[in-house]
Design brief:
The chain is mainly alpha-helical. It has a domain of 111 residues: Double Stranded RNA Binding Domain, CATH 3.30.160. Helix content is 48%, strand content 12%. Strands 1-2-3 form a 3-stranded antiparallel sheet, with helices on one face.
């Protein structure tokens, strides 16, 4: 009986996590109609279940046909990410869990993370100059190194050369 309660509690808590994920995605800038889902068979271990049930999810999101701003589209296409094809389609495969619903939620989260990573504009780099002390230290080190190299030459009786 306790195992049944534990199972039910885990199921409820897992579903609550999925609801939170879906609510977070609902508030995003991505339109649901722009995303395509395909259920495929998962790879790897799983016994007989892996051969029968299509639990893995392929998510397809066409960047060119999306309602994202032009700036975001350009930044997404400029990314050198293996998940973005040459045609400008984001393909995300999710197969972490044995549930199709949770794999779908995880794929949506990954798409959301990809788009939010592009939303942040990189700051402009302001070039810095070396400080006066660092320049003096570098020149002192060069001078010291030059003296050491000069001592490697032939030995002369005249000390003034050094």
């Amino acid at each position: 009986m306790r195992t049944l309660y534990r199972f039910l509690w885990e199921l409820i808590s897992f579903n609550l996590e999925l609801i939170v994920i879906f609510m977070r995605i609902k508030n995003s800038i991505i339109n649901d109609r722009e995303i395509e889902f395909f259920a495929v068979r998962a790879q790897g271990a799983g016994g007989q279940n892996v051969n029968k049930v299509a639990t893995a999810i392929h998510l397809r999101f066409d960047i060119h046909a999306s309602s994202l701003s032009v700036c975001l589209k350009q930044r997404l296409l400029a990314l050198h990410d293996s998940r973005i094809s040459k045609e400008g389609v984001v393909i995300i495969k999710s197969q972490q869990t044995r549930s199709q619903l949770s794999n779908r939620a995880l794929a949506l989260v990954r798409l959301q993370e990809l788009i939010t990573s592009v939303q942040l504009t990189p700051g402009l780099r302001r070039p810095t100059r070396p400080t006066k002390n660092s320049r003096l230290k570098r020149l002192k080190g060069k001078n010291h190194r030059g003296k050491i190299k000069k001592l490697r030459g032939k030995v002369h009786d005249d000390i003034s050369r050094i």
